[in-house]
């Protein structure tokens, strides 16, 4: 039995149809491309307003739906601005406005790629499938925050119950040769959205304007507050995880990568392989052999952030070397293995939770292309 193939990222893992571990919370999330969902009920047409993609946002509190629209993915110096809006469809219940903030809550709590920040402004990512990269929201020095519409209610004016309200988010800059992206926002994937240049005009005086009354003013000067911009860009993975074998197989831009949780291989704070680790080692050998691998293989050990940096580095190196020795005894001489440790570097989950730390403790085996 196998779980279906899914697209994932390193850091904050994006998942199309799989179980997602987000900090201490583990929940099943179904992310469906907009093209695969029934067309949303129409919102009032506004002349001159671009509609690049549209999807439903479901609300589990009252069973209703709101309409999410992407109006622009705009390239600016040092960043990319995503304009989006949310509104109630025609025919929505008369009391829907009272519950409208529940839909907005979908932005607050959605899966965020690339960082642990919360809020609508942090819940946007751009996917370049062909280039194998995900571009997430740019983190700023204000802890757990990103550049974008902050604290937006998305509630329309009382006299315009079906009006959509505009929000925005600033994402890592896209390469110049990327002309279309898939937009991941509020647990929805909206495919094939064109990338254009420059900010939308005219600019409204309202920080959260109604669609058709102008566009939010984007504070580009605040790009100076961005920290660790490189951490907002991640390699994409196509990953298959067998349920009965604890070895994940991922396609990355560098080649095939096998990943084994440290809990499967080692006892706590140990680097010697117990007999119980044999199944995982045999599974990895079978995958390497089936791939027809020859040449150099790199075995890399990782730890969580608990403990001293130097100790974690040494532990990760010892664990990588133990796995290398076990593999070397079972693989042909045409394969060369190299071991390295990266300690707590390159975490794939939040080190602030038990579940996140467990995901970060791992050994990867990178096969050549």
Automatic annotation (TrEMBL):
Q: Which residues form the OmpA-like domain?
A: 253-369
Q: Which Pfam families match?
A: OmpA
CDD domains given for it? OmpA_C-like
Query: Entry's InterPro entries?
Result: Bact_OuterMem_StrucFunc (IPR050330), OMP_bac (IPR006664), OmpA-like (IPR006665), OmpA-like_sf (IPR036737)
Location in the cell: Cell outer membrane
**PROSITE patterns (UniProt xref):** OMPA_2
Q: Per the annotation, which location comes first and is thus the protein's main one?
A: membrane
Question: What is the protein name for this chain?
Answer: OmpA-like domain-containing protein
Where along the sequence do coiled-coil regions lie?
A: none
| Keywords assigned | Cell outer membrane, Membrane, Signal
Q: Which organism is it from?
A: Nostocoides vanveenii
Q: Which residues, if any, are the signal sequence? A: 1-38
């Amino acid at each position: 039995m196998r779980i279906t193939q899914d697209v994932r990222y390193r850091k904050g893992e994006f998942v199309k149809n799989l179980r997602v571990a987000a900090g201490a919370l583990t929940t099943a999330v179904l992310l469906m491309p907009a093209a695969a969902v029934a067309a949303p009920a129409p919102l009032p047409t506004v002349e001159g307003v671009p509609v690049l993609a549209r999807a439903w946002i479901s609300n589990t509190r009252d069973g209703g739906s709101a309409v999410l629209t992407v109006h622009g993915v705009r390239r600016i110096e040092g960043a990319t601005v995503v304009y989006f809006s949310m509104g109630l469809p025609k025919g929505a219940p008369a009391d829907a406005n009272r519950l409208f903030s529940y839909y907005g809550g979908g932005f607050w709590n959605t899966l965020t790629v690339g960082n642990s920040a919360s809020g609508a402004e942090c819940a946007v990512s751009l996917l370049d499938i062909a280039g194998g990269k995900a571009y997430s929201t740019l983190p700023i020095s204000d802890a757990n925050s990103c550049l974008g519409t902050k604290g937006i209610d998305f509630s329309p004016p009382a006299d315009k119950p079906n009006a959509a309200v505009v929000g925005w988010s600033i994402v890592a800059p896209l390469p110049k040769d990327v002309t279309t992206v898939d937009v991941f926002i509020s647990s929805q994937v909206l495919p094939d959205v064109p990338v254009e240049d420059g900010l939308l005009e005219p600019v409204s005086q309202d920080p959260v304007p109604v669609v058709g009354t102008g566009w939010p003013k984007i504070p580009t000067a605040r790009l100076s507050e961005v920290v660790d911009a490189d951490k907002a860009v991640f390699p994409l993975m196509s990953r298959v995880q067998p349920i009965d074998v604890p070895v994940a197989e991922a396609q990355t831009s560098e080649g095939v990568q096998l990943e084994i949780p440290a809990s499967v291989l080692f006892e706590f704070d140990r680097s010697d392989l117990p007999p119980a680790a044999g199944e995982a080692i045999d599974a990895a050998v079978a995958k390497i052999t089936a791939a027809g691998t020859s040449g150099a293989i790199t075995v890399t050990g990782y730890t969580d952030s608990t403990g001293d940096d130097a100790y974690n580095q040494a532990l990760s190196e010892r664990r990588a070397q133990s796995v290398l020795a076990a593999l070397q005894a079972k693989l042909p001489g045409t394969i060369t293995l190299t071991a390295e440790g990266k300690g707590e570097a390159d975490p794939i989950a939040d080190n602030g939770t038990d579940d996140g730390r467990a995901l970060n403790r791992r050994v990867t085996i990178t096969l050549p292309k």
